[in-house]
Amino acid sequence: MPSPGHIALVTGLVSTSYFTFGNIGAAYFGIMPLTARGQTTLSVPDRLALWDTFYSVSKFHMASSTIIAGLSLSVSSYLTPAGSLRNLLAAGAVSGFTVAIFTVLFILPLNNGLLAISRANSGKPMEEKQQQYVLAQLDQWRALHRVRMALGIISWLASTTALLASDPVIQF
């Protein structure tokens, strides 16, 4: 039977995998490329509506996955004897929590601004100046999102490495 530390580690790995690869997929193969300059012929209001839909769908499960990852890796680190494996798990936990903190401090204000514009202009044409502002905000969002993905990758690498370096989770 797996130990509580292993259960926490596997939970952390699953959560970081979901967060990291879900975000990478959305950023490079999903809806987000359709919001980028030079990637599509969609109008700016349509790009903003796509971003709004993406954000509305993903805000709860992506946020909860990184919190679960941070908590799980914290528990796994706590239950692991002192040494490099414990330090690695702690680094993964810190990275997982940093995603949430970074999002609240830097991305949430941008999200709120984009949502306000989306709601105010729903079904209405935008002036050129506002379109350029929205495109600049979407560019900034993508740049900040790359930082968040890098933090997710750190957490995923830590949990993957820890799982491979630990004793077998299931023994026969």
Report what the structure shows.
This protein is mostly helical and 172 residues long. Helix content is 79%, strand content 0%. The chain has four helices and no strands. α1 (4-28) runs antiparallel to α2 (44-79). The model has no long low-confidence stretch (mean pLDDT 93).
Short description:
The chain has 172 residues and is mostly helical. It has 4 helices and no strands.
Oligomeric state: single chain
What can be said about the biggest beta sheet?
Answer: none
The chain-level mean pLDDT equals 93
Strand content: under 5%
Which class best fits the helix and strand makeup? Answer: mainly alpha
Helix content: over 70%
Alpha carbon gyration radius = 19 Å
Give me the secondary-structure topology:
Blueprint: H1 4-28, H2 44-79, H3 84-120, H4 128-165
Helix pairs in contact: 1-2, 1-4, 2-3, 2-4, 3-4
Name its key features:
single chain; 79% helix; mainly alpha; 172 residues; 4 helices
